Amino acid sequence: MEVNGADTSWILISSALVLFMTPGLALFYGGMVRAKNMLAMLMMNYVAMGVVTILWVAVAASLAFSGNEVSGLVGNLGLVGLRGVGLGNEIFKYSIPDSLFLGFQMMFAIITPALIAGAVAERMKFSAWVAFIAIWSVIVYAPMAHWVWGGGFIATQVKAVDFAGGLVVHINAGAAALALVFVLGPRIGWGHSVIRPHNLPLTILGAGMLWFGWFGFNAGSALGANGLAAQAFMTTHIAAAVAATAWIVAESLAGGKPTTLGFVSGAVAGLVAITPAAGFVSFMGAIIIGIAAGVICFMALRLKTTFKFDDSLDVIAVHLVGGILGALLLGVLADPAVNAAATGGMAQLTSQAISVVIAFVYSFVLSYVIAKVLDMLMGIRASETDEREGLDIALHEEQAYQMAE
Amino acid sequence: MKLIIAYIAPFKLDEVRDALKETGVTGLSAGNVQGFGRQAGHTETYRGAEYDVDMVPKVRIEVLVDDSLAPAVISTIETTARTGSIGDGKIAVLPVEDVIRIRTGERGRDAV
Question: Which residue of A29, A187, A190, A194 to mutate against B (max B Cβ within 10 Å)?
Answer without folding.
Answer: A194
